[in-house]
Amino acid sequence: MIIHEQTLISDDILNELFACDIQACKGACCIEGDKGAPLEQEELNIIEENLPAILNNLPEENRTFIEEHGFFEQDHDGEYVTTCLNDGRCCFVIEHGNGILGCGMEQTYYQNQSDFIKPISCHLYPVRLGQYGDFTALNYHQWPICSAACSKGQQNNVKVYEFVETALRRKFGDEWYEALVQIDQSRPTS
To answer: Which whole-number Å values give the CA distances from 136 to 50, 64, 154, in the listed order?
Structure first.
């Protein structure tokens, strides 16, 4: 574990290799799991403000579901998560050609119709955040649906933190990220 400012960083984030291979997994992280994507409190209002534009990019089934059930709920731990359709898909999931799943929020953002790319939990994936007192813990979430991402990370020599650089900069800032790079580069090699 590495302490960096107010964060506790799992060694796996600096040691493990990962680069999403969307062609292999087809976006399975948008449909797998036992609940929707974690949402931070402040993201609820941001998504609500952008919801009309986002809804325009969703399939009719998803729009109807969100109108009836909302786009978020509290899980059994009291945390906010996106709602999921009856088949387990996140309510914001869309399908691109050739069966690849994506995010309707992200599509809306890239069409310049929204100023919110997607929840930080999705943007950071496979890094998961947790709160421990005054510290934010960063852990690497490993599961079989990402095996192709692990292989691609090894082929391209991309560390987990490098893969999620943009999201880490978004969450913690450029100075924090640059210092993390320095921490990694100053560690002894094995």
So the answer is: 27, 36, 27
